[in-house]
C-alpha cells in the first residue's frame, strides 16, 4: 500500500476575504469612469449642437453620486433644460423646435461604451486579486 502526504498552502484575496472589498472598489471606480465619460460626452455634444451657446447651460451639467454605485447626470434644473432636451410642454407642435435630445442620445451611446470602459477599469484592479 502506497501512501502519499501533501501539504498545500492556499492564499490570496479570494481565500482570505479581501476579494469582496476589491470588487466593491472596482464597481465604484467603474461607475465613476462611466459617469465621467457621460459628463464629458454631454458637454461635448451640447457645445456642438447648441446654435447660440452662451456657456451657461453647459456649465450647469452635474455629475452627482446618488449612492456608492449610482451616479446621475443632470442639468441642475435649468428652467429651459426640458425645452432644449425636447421633453418640455413648449416643444413641437407648440413651437417648431423639437429639441436636441442630447441626454437621450448620449445615454444610448454611453450604454455601448460602458462595457469597454468597465473592462479598462478592471485591468487596474486585477493585480489586487492575485
Reading the helices and strands in chain order gives HHHEEHH
The general outline is: rod-shaped
Cα-based radius of gyration, to the nearest Å: 23 Å
- DSSP helical segment count: 5
The low-pLDDT segments are: none
Overall mean confidence score, pLDDT? 90
What structural class do you assign from the helix and strand content?
Answer: mainly alpha
**Through-space gap between termini:** 39 Å
Query: What can be said about the biggest beta sheet?
Result: 2 strands, antiparallel
Strand order of the largest sheet: 1-2
Total number of beta strands: 2
How many structural domains does the protein architecture include? 1
Helix content: 40-55%
Amount of beta strand: 5-15%
Structural overview:
It is a single chain. With 130 residues, the chain is mainly alpha-helical. It has one domain. The chain is 51% helix and 8% strand. It has 5 helices and 2 strands; from the N terminus they run H-H-H-E-E-H-H. A two-stranded antiparallel ribbon has the order 1-2. The radius of gyration is 23 Å and the shape is rod-shaped. The two termini are 39 Å apart. The mean pLDDT is 90.
Amino acid at each position: 500500500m502506497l501512501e502519499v502526504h501533501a501539504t498545500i498552502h492556499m492564499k490570496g484575496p479570494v481565500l482570505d476575504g479581501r476579494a469582496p472589498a476589491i470588487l466593491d472598489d472596482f464597481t465604484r471606480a467603474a461607475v465613476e469612469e462611466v459617469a465621467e465619460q457621460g459628463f464629458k460626452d454631454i458637454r461635448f455634444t451640447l457645445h456642438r449642437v447648441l446654435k447660440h451657446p452662451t456657456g451657461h447651460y453647459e456649465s450647469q451639467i452635474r455629475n452627482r453620486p446618488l449612492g456608492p454605485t449610482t451616479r446621475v447626470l443632470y442639468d441642475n434644473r435649468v428652467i429651459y433644460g426640458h425645452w432644449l432636451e425636447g421633453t418640455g410642454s413648449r416643444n413641437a407642435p407648440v413651437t417648431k423646435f423639437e429639441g436636441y435630445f442630447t441626454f437621450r442620445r448620449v445615454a444610448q451611446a454611453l450604454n455601448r461604451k460602458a462595457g469597454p470602459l468597465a473592462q479598462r477599469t478592471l485591468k487596474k484592479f486585477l493585480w489586487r486579486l492575485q
